[in-house]
């Protein structure tokens, strides 16, 4: 294309853009009603842009005079953008917008001042060439900063508006975006090439023509409600974009300042600075702590309410409703749902024990915390059911809460600095669980809004957990019913067989002609009959005898019988044998211990010993069976260990632990279990002491030191 033709096209574009801007301003001036304040601001911007376009007719487009007019036009467009934000006083209610607008106005004012200093009357009379060049580079960087900030505001203007308002805002927002996107590309190339590209500078009139056309379409369209309704995620992304833009500009400024030093190491210093700054950005920006601090700061200063309840509820339902073979259990999802709301990285779920109190049920990302077998006692359960408190553990540690009893704030929780909050899950005023939250990366004090939301979420989760518990109980009752029907047939057949064998034994006694045969047959039949009768007695015993058959028994003798059964088969190690007498059924206790020892042998490595420990204190006798096997998860202990007909062994009935627990309960005792995956398991049988034995043990402990001295 020849130079003359290009000049003609550029002149025509400038004239056309100026004419279109003036005509649109006249259309605005002729309109009645509407947003008169916005129209006046738009007319000022159009007039200054038209003046710039007319001044560029026949001019090379790169003079400081045109840059001065262009800076004034940009200020006018920024004023119009601020008018859109101020249409519902959003610039006053959201602290981020107004300071950013003022900062951009200051930057553009500085750019106008630089353009004024570089006018020919000053630049070639007073300013040396190096200073003029430095001012040019500084002006380009100011323009880059202005374009980035202005585009962030345009993005905020459109995305944060209510849906009806977007219909009226889309054309003005598109016009301003075209204007500053063109400038962003223009000044980026200028900064990289260290000179203004003539074609892009002269073609700016075409961008202005597109801006006027988009504004004209918007003027003819209907205006929507300009009430601003920003979401939290939108504000966080916008603020992050502004921070990134500011970081980019600061990095460019420092790198350029290093280059202006002019020494031989300037280039190496520039490269080193860029590498270090990029490394810092990569280390800090992905940080969860930094993101948490930004989110807390924005929520605290930009919004009346901390939570976006719609977003929180959608996330909650998505977490709870997540299913599939790879999904975590419902109890772990319950912990995650509460932790996500409070930005907590991990948590625990405690659920009621059948004996009373609370025990750990599920862990979510919190394997390191040590939890005792009884995490909280029955008194704590009653307190939370009556008071329905959500406890901030930091308040307890600082002494700001005086009305929380010790039972509701166990020492193992207060001693762990990572433990942050306790959220009770209540269903019809009954405690079905307790979520313990870990401290978030950016800790804060819980307030009324946290308590209200967590209380609502807790009740919803409690209903899910109660429903699952009811379904499990119904399924177990159905399996028991099926089992009882099968056992009825088995007992009937066994009774018939026992009767036939008894009759055969009696008939065999009549044949005395073969004494040896008779004796052997009678002995065999009697043994078989005894075994069948014993089996019938055991099958019919459960649930019928209650506490009958209890007697005083020495536990040490029972343990000796158990060890003799496994002698030569597997190593059993007795850690302690404190003498004590308890009220129990010795045969049932022996059978329960055999079940537990057999499970410990099968759980541990080959030839790994199983330890038996006997301790006596004021609460009773404690018999422990300890192994160092693979351990069990809280979910397995809760859902399968004591559930009949669930066995991890091929061909097993899954009633060993269930039978052991029922035997211990029938004697008035308790069976507890503590297990860690990869470490091992400890079963503990607790039996009440015989009153006389308890008194003797107490006297022995009190007289122990004196006896040793003697």
Automatic annotation (TrEMBL):
Coiled coil: none annotated. Keywords: Kinase, Membrane, Phosphoprotein, Transferase, Transmembrane, Transmembrane helix. One of its GO terms (molecular function) is phosphorelay sensor kinase activity. Pfam families: HATPase_c. It comes from the Bacteria. The chain crosses the membrane at residues 6-26, 38-55, 67-87, 94-114, 134-159, 171-193, 205-222, 234-259, 265-285. InterPro entries: HATPase_C_sf, HATPase_dom, His_kinase_dom, Sig_transdc_His_kin-like_C, XrtA/PrsK. Residues 489-691 form the Histidine kinase domain. It catalyses: ATP + protein L-histidine = ADP + protein N-phospho-L-histidine. It is an enzyme of class 2 (transferase). Its EC number is 2.7.13.3. The keyword Membrane applies. The keyword Membrane applies. PANTHER family: HYBRID SIGNAL TRANSDUCTION HISTIDINE KINASE C (PTHR43547:SF2), TWO-COMPONENT HISTIDINE KINASE (PTHR43547). This is histidine kinase. The gene is prsK.
